[in-house]
Design brief:
15 helices, Aspartate Aminotransferase, domain 2, seven-stranded mixed sheet, alpha/beta, 16% strand
Length: 381
């Protein structure tokens, strides 16, 4: 076995060592971590639903009726009535024919490449895509090509230069570490012009973007035909856990028949599905959560501008502050924690080398007073 101790020491020396902090309270904006009461600015609970009393109650009541485990895979005897109802609700909400639940977004992305591509095909991805998309392509038998962030002219060249039976373009709708949006209209147009299939991973847009919170496809009014493969996670704005893929009946049937990460995995607890459905109701009925979130985003950007702190060009709840050097990002994160502010330092390989950053995320449960405390703490470090 390789020298693991030496490898770990090397990671520490380069400022790449990761450490777990212990959350000792429910998920929220005011939390207790490692014995300290802090204001959190690093959760993806964008709408503040992870600890909502009615979402918790939906989970509790479903657990009392269905138990806490599903027992087996969906295709054995783990697919409950609640899973079925949740998939129907997600399909209706996204305007797709059908939807399929997965235990994680990672598994959903793996499902797409394992079920839909083989060695005769080619996959094209943005270089800033999430690791789960990249790994899904690497673990497939298809040829894998990456294009520079939002560079659709390069993507067109790669597609036209790559012989393949089928071409699949996979892209994040909202880039998780930068917070900006992909050129989704451009991707839709290019996919149509090159006869390629398009998949969007809308993990950070679903629940937040659009008039009804349906994500980037809702915001841009994109149909199933324009975006035939839509994936989104359920542990961020929805506040629960898991993920889903939505699309045509043929797509979902193919995933059920051929996606290894679906076939060979125990189904998530039925209570999860119940909590997800309750969250979906709040997303559709309580638009004030999204409205408040975007008011807070604007307020935060104004405050940072007054501090002359440069932000990345993001209009979403993800507001990164690029520091650059790994150790410096860690130092700032630790000093903020000492002041009662929890913001995690993000370092390579999650982001490109030399772009270590503070990934600040906002929630509808934040108040302007929370942001004032964050900005005050930042001004001191």
């Amino acid at each position: 076995m390789r020298n693991l101790k030496q490898d770990l020491a090397h990671r520490k020396q380069k400022g790449l060592y990761r450490q777990q902090r212990l959350l000792q309270s429910p998920q929220g904006v005011e939390t207790r971590i490692d014995g300290r009461d802090v204001i959190s600015f690093c959760s993806n609970d964008y709408l503040g639903l992870a600890n909502h009393p009615e979402v918790k109650q939906a989970f509790i009541e479903a657990a009392q009726q269905y138990g806490v485990g599903s027992g087996s895979a969906h295709l054995v005897n783990g697919h409950s009535q609640l899973h079925h109802e949740c998939e129907q609700a997600l399909a209706e909400f996204t305007g797709r024919e059908r939807a399929l639940l997965f235990s994680t977004g990672y598994m959903a992305n793996l499902a797409v490449t394992s079920a839909l591509t083989d060695r005769h095909d080619a996959i094209f991805q943005d270089k800033l895509n999430h690791a789960s998309l990249i790994d899904a392509a690497k673990l497939s038998d298809a040829r894998f090509k990456r294009y520079s962030n939002n560079d659709l002219s390069q993507l067109r060249h790669l597609i036209e230069a790559t012989p393949a039976r089928q071409r699949l373009v996979m892209a994040d709708a909202v880039f998780s570490m930068d917070g900006d949006l992909a050129d989704v209209p451009g991707l839709v147009k290019l996919a149509e012009q090159t006869d390629s299939d398009l998949m969007l991973d809308d993990a950070h847009g679903f629940g937040v973007l659009g008039k009804k919170g349906g994500g980037v496809c809702d915001a841009l009014e994109l149909s199933q035909q324009q975006v035939p493969i839509l994936m989104a996670t359920l542990g961020k704005a929805v506040g629960v856990s898991g993920a889903f893929i939505a699309g045509s009946d043929d797509l979902i049937e193919t995933l059920i028949q051929q996606a290894r990460s679906y076939i060979f995995t125990t189904a998530s607890p039925p209570a999860n599905a119940s909590a997800i459905m309750q969250s979906l109701k709040f997303i559709q009925q309580e638009a004030w959560r999204r409205e408040k979130l975007f008011e807070l985003i604007d307020y935060f950007k104004q405050q940072m501008q007054s501090l002359e702190v440069e932000l990345m060009p993001s209009e979403t709840a993800i507001q990164p502050v690029v520091v650059g050097e790994n150790h410096r990002a860690l130092e700032i994160s630790e000093k903020l924690f000492e002041q009662g502010i929890h913001v995690v330092a993000i370092r390579p390989p999650t982001v490109p080398a030399g772009t270590a950053r503070l990934r600040i995320t906002l929630s509808a449960n934040h108040e302007k007073s929370h942001i004032d405390r964050l900005c005050s703490a930042l001004s001191k470090v």
